[in-house]
Design a protein that fits this description.
The complex is a heterodimer of chains A (482) and B (512).
Chain A lengths: L6 H9 L5 E3 L15 H6 L1 H22 L2 E2 L5 E2 L1 H25 L3 E3 L1 E7 L2 E6 L4 E5 L3 E3 L3 E3 L7 H4 L1 E2 H4 L9 E4 L3 H12 L4 E5 L9 H13 L3 E4 L1 E10 L5 E8 L5 E6 L1 E4 L3 E3 L6 H4 L23 E3 L11 H16 L13 E3 L5 E5 L2 H8 L4 E8 L2 H4 L8 E8 L5 E8 L3 H13 L4 H6 L26 E3 L4
Parallel strand pairs in A: 1-4, 8-19, 10-17, 11-12, 11-17, 12-13
Antiparallel strand pairs in A: 5-6, 6-7, 9-18, 14-15, 15-16, 20-21, 21-24, 22-23, 22-25, 23-24
Helix pairs in contact in A: 1-10, 3-4, 3-7
Chain B lengths: L1 H24 L4 E6 L3 H12 L4 E4 L15 H6 L1 H22 L2 E2 L5 E2 L1 H25 L3 E3 L2 E6 L2 E5 L5 E11 L3 E3 L8 H4 L3 H4 L9 E4 L3 H12 L4 E5 L9 H14 L2 E4 L1 E8 L5 E7 L5 E6 L1 E4 L3 E3 L6 H4 L23 E3 L11 H16 L13 E3 L5 E5 L2 H8 L4 E7 L3 H6 L7 E7 L6 E7 L3 H13 L4 H6 L30
Classes of the chains: A alpha/beta (482), B alpha/beta (512).
Cofactor (chain A): FAD
Family (chain A): Belongs to the class-I pyridine nucleotide-disulfide oxidoreductase family.
Enzyme class (chain A): oxidoreductase
Chain lengths: 482, 512
């Protein structure tokens, strides 16, 4: 059974002439939102997020363009509905595309909620409550996750989550984003970029799990560009002052460090405090699949197999794996190739690159600085870093010391590059190739001997000297005793 | 009279004596003298200075036929990469303005582009770089002379200022890095009087208006590209194929996109004459070599982008015996950048058989200095140098073109993986992605080493850079396939390439 976007694996299985069925069902959000086939990434994740991030970037581009000679009337406003409609139309075309793809590959698709009722048997319940039973030789669980709620008065009634944001039929207005995850920061980022008044409420640190040096730089940049941060507070109550689209909400929050209580008024409260695996209500107990009781995640071996031999799992629900679309896709494809194609390749979870699409984008691959120190010891690590000023930012006089790149090398292993971090425009495009190079065992020497492409941001990550003033960018060895 | 003259002579003699004395004493004034303050020259000089050497840089810009000149920094900074990329950015922002409306931004029309405003902003930035370079040289204690240098003897350079004042400089080692300048098709009547080149384009104070760009080089296409992007009526005249030397399939996609973007192309045409009209417009006559007919049209500006020639004439190289290639005029160097004269070296666009790129000149200059003064023996590696053509739809590449690979290894021994893709950002913007394409040329044998990677799309330079590193590490197709993609980006499609040209299957990427 599948719950979402692992179309690749079903298509893959169908390639081997196996009879495949996909069950996909979206339990509506507390506010009643639902969506089509494709899963989180397509409907309420990567795709709409990147499109709205693009909308925000275009807002910035408009401002830049004036400095490059473009002339148009002063007042430029953003229309939320125009954007959302375009985004939703595109998503609709993807939902449709998946249905067609499954049909072409002769994969049976049912829009029904699947749960195990006994070994090898699943009950599928559709929207109208009609139940059907299906049996299969093997099962693949890929039900993913849904946003977590705070568990405070008013959260489910009045707050929205990323599940609601991308199809919101009205402009969210003055928004409070609760959380410090990349979901929180990316959403806060593009909402501010579209011209909205945005505040982010953070309980402790930003982007837990990511390189903290980079996380702080991201936060700083966002703050310098108009996003307010309320640190070390958590909401304890959300009340409605006025109904509407958007309405007015009063949020009461308590300090994590003492007894201070603050209040604030917002049009929208977006909760982005984490996601919970959809594993509690799919009958796993009926077939004996063990899950981590605390997190709900499913532990699997390196072949994506659960403790029940004929049941596999992939994607966001896996314990100790990255919650990323490309990882899920790769794992799914390789799994099927192993099951039906006689292949033996396992999914390589090491050095998986990722990008956070905040206003200043952050691309990373490999170890964070702190993890590198922890794993290899401070004396065995060398960190090379540099600030840089993208050429495109010079003419519009944008920040000249915010973009930043750092490379972490393992001295003991031929100065092998074990961590790559870049903060700047098109961070994803920049990082992808470096991830490939890291997969090939890139060393500092090879980095130094590669010629840069000029003039692009990525070349700063190679040791090339740019013909620009000394004050702006240069490489130097950076000792960790900062 | 005689007394005055004698006194002056004695004065001159005194200064001259000083230098001559030093020369006579056998010790050259400088450890290193670099002729040419561009990418290669400056990098070499600054690196040498790091080793505590006495270094001097001579830089001089002979004004273009139209009278344009500029400051320290060379072609890249003044009339190349930098202003080019900034004007390309201006054009891209024009597209962004159109896209923005689809994304909900309400921009009231009309939207105009003001050349003067853009040009001034770009020129100001370039001037800040000129200034920055001068400060850098000062900081690194490199002596800078704004003089035109030529050889008097193997260790002596005669420098002439604009006003004709002479300076004599001697050096232990000399590096020639005088670069190149645009060629004029002097057999075309009116070419020199009425046409401009890239030397002038970036310094124009007024809009070039309706422009004819003659040439099929990346310079021609990049310039025509951004001129079209800022709203000017632009035509490219090409004698034969576009982007000679580059992968031809990719070159066609580049020009196809430009055509759909609004640039007009006159293919298989060669100009015969340029005349000035009473209205001050230029009447250009050309021959269509396909049809054999002669055609004519008028333009505000005609820009020649028919190639660049090395700047060696004024150097007086014959006096000291530095050999040049008889056909190209470029200086012949060996793998260590040494010329035919042992203590004279050359780096950058002036050298024969090297890529004409800023990063290679810089790297070569630095490594040269390290070998001369720093006990290094590392030679410059000119293999697998990545590059990007900044046309409206950018083209980035590293390694061999498909034709080259077939030539070197035989088509049976190579596998070409390819894909047509659509950048996510194009979807909502309703932009045409017909030419967004990538291909990887690999060896077919077991290891499947990657020989070349080609990518057309937005931010092509950013995409290719990291993969160039991978290729430097000997990346193979399986290694790339093991690399997980970053989603959603254009670059991730490279890690998913799996359709081969050989299979004949549809290479369009579908879905997520």
């Amino acid at each position: 059974i599948i719950h979402y976007c692992l179309i690749k694996s079903h298509k893959e299985a169908a390639k081997y002439e196996k009879k495949v069925m996909v069950l996909d069902f979206v339990t509506p959000t507390p506010l009643g939102n639902s969506w089509g086939l494709g899963g989180t990434c397509v409907n309420v994740g990567c795709i709409p997020k990147k499109l709205m991030h693009q909308a925000a970037l275009l807002g910035q581009a408009l401002q830049d363009s004036r400095k490059f000679g473009w002339q148009f009337p002063e007042e430029v406003k953003h229309n939320w509905m125009t954007m959302t409609e375009s985004v939703q139309n595109y998503i609709g075309s993807l939902n449709w595309g998946y249905r067609v793809a499954l049909r072409e590959k002769k994969v049976t698709y049912e829009n029904a909620y699947g749960e195990f009722v006994q070994p090898h048997t699943v009950k599928a319940t559709n929207k109208r409550g009609v139940e059907k039973l299906y049996t299969a030789e093997r099962f693949l669980i890929a039900t993913g996750e849904r946003p977590r709620y705070l568990g405070i008065p008013g959260d489910k009634e009045y707050c929205i989550s990323s599940d609601d944001l991308f199809s919101l039929p009205y402009c969210p207005g003055k928004t409070l984003v609760v959380g410090a995850s990349y979901v929180a920061l990316e959403c806060a980022g593009f909402l501010a970029g579209l011209g909205l008044d945005v505040t982010v409420m953070v309980r402790s640190i930003l982007l837990r799990g990511f390189d903290q040096d980079m996380a702080n730089k991201i936060g700083e940049y966002m703050e310098e560009h108009g996003i307010k941060f309320i640190r070390e507070f958590v909401p304890i109550k959300v009340e409605q002052i006025e109904e509407g689209t958007p309405g007015r909400l009063k949020v009461t929050a308590k300090s994590t460090k003492g007894n201070e209580v603050i209040e604030g008024e917002y049009n929208t409260v977006l909760l982005a405090i984490g996601r919970d695996a959809c594993t509690r209500k799919i009958g796993l107990d009926k077939v004996g699949v063990k899950i981590n009781e605390k997190t709900g995640k499913i532990p699997v071996n390196d072949m994506e197999q659960t403790n029940v031999p004929y049941i596999y799992a992939i994607g966001d629900i896996l314990q100790d794996r990255l919650e990323l679309t490309p990882v899920a896709i790769q794992a799914g494809r390789l799994l099927v190739q192993r099951l039906y194609g006689g292949a033996t390749t396992k999914c390589d979870y090491v050095n998986v690159p990722t990008t956070v699409f905040t206003p200043l984008e952050y691309g990373a691959c490999g170890y964070s600085e702190e993890n590198a120190i922890q794993k290899f010891g401070e004396e065995n690590i060398e960190v090379y870093h540099s600030h840089f000023w993208p050429l495109e930012w010079t003419v519009p006089s944008r920040d000249n010391n915010k973009c930043y790149a750092k490379i972490i090398c393992n001295i003991r292993d031929n100065e092998r590059v074990i961590g790559f971090h870049v903060l700047g425009p098109n961070a994803g495009e920049v990082t992808q190739g470096f991830a490939a190079a890291i997969k090939c065992g890139l060393t500092k020497e090879q980095l130094d001997s590669t010629i840069g492409i000029h003039p692009v941001c990525a070349e700063v990550c190679i040791r090339s000297h740019l013909p620009i003033p000394a004050s702006v960018a240069f490489w130097d060895k950076h000792n960790l005793g900062r | 009279m005689a007394a005055l003259w004698r006194r002056r002579r004695r004065l001159l003699g005194a200064a001259g004596l000083c230098r001559t004395a030093r020369a006579l004493s056998g010790k050259p004034e400088y450890d290193l003298l670099v002729i040419g303050g561009g990418s290669g020259g400056l990098a070499c000089a600054k690196e040498a200075a790091q080793f505590g050497r006495k270094v001097a840089v001579l830089d001089y810009v002979e004004p273009s036929p139209q009278g344009t000149k500029w400051g320290l920094g060379g072609t890249c900074v003044n009339v190349g990469c930098i202003p080019k990329k900034l004007m390309h950015q201006a054009a891209l922002l024009g597209s962004a303005l159109k896209d923005a409306q689809h994304y909900g931004w309400n921009i009231a029309h009309p939207v105009h582009h003001n050349w003067s405003e853009m040009a001034q902003a770009v020129q100001n930035y370039v001037k800040s770089l000129n200034w920055g370079h001068r400060i850098q040289l000062q900081d690194k204690k490199v002596k800078y002379f704004n003089v035109k240098g030529s050889f008097s003897d193997p260790h002596t350079i005669r420098g002439l200022t604009k006003g004709g004042k002479e300076t004599i400089l001697t050096a232990e080692k000399i590096v020639i890095a005088t670069g190149g300048r645009p060629k004029y098709p002097i057999h075309v009547a009116g070419a020199l009087e009425y046409g401009i080149t890239s030397d002038d384009l970036f310094w124009l104070k007024e809009s070039p208006g309706k422009t004819l760009v003659v040439g099929a080089s990346y310079i021609s296409l990049e310039c025509a590209g951004f001129l079209t992007g800022i709203g000017l009526d632009t035509t490219v005249m090409m004698r034969s194929i576009p982007l000679r030397g580059f992968d031809q399939q990719m070159a066609s996609l580049v020009t196809e996109y430009m055509e759909s973007y609004g640039t007009k192309f006159l293919k298989k045409c060669i100009p015969t004459k340029v005349e000035k009209l009473e209205s001050n417009r230029l009447q250009v006559t050309w021959k269509n070599t396909d049809s054999g007919t002669e055609e004519t049209d008028s333009f505000d500006t005609v820009m020649w982008a028919v190639g660049r020639a090395p700047d060696t004439k004024a150097l007086n190289l014959e006096t000291v015996g530095v050999k040049t290639n008889s056909e190209t005029g470029k200086i012949i160097v060996d793998a260590s950048e040494a010329t035919s004269v042992p203590h004279i070296y050359a780096v950058g666009d002036i050298t024969e058989g090297r890529p004409e790129l800023t990063p290679t000149a810089i790297a070569a200059g630095k490594l040269l200095a390290q070998r001369l003064f720093g006990q290094s023996s590392e030679l410059m590696d000119y293999d697998n140098v990545p590059t990007t053509v900044f046309t409206p739809l950018e083209y980035g590449c590293v390694g061999l073109s498909e034709e080259k690979a077939v030539q070197c290894y035989g088509s049976d021994n190579i596998e070409v993986y390819h894909a047509y893709y659509k950048p996510l950002e194009f979807t909502v913007a309703e932009r045409d992605a017909t030419q967004c394409y990538m291909k990887m040329v690999c060896l077919r044998e077991r290891e499947q080493r990657i020989l070349g990677l080609h990518f057309i799309g937005p931010n092509a330079g950013e995409v290719i850079q990291g993969f160039a590193l991978g290729i430097k590490c000997g990346a193979t197709y399986p290694q790339l396939m093991k690399t997980i993609g970053i989603h959603p980006t254009c670059a991730e499609e490279i890690t998913k390439l799996h359709i081969t040209k050989r299979s004949g299957l549809d290479a369009t990427v579908t879905g997520c």
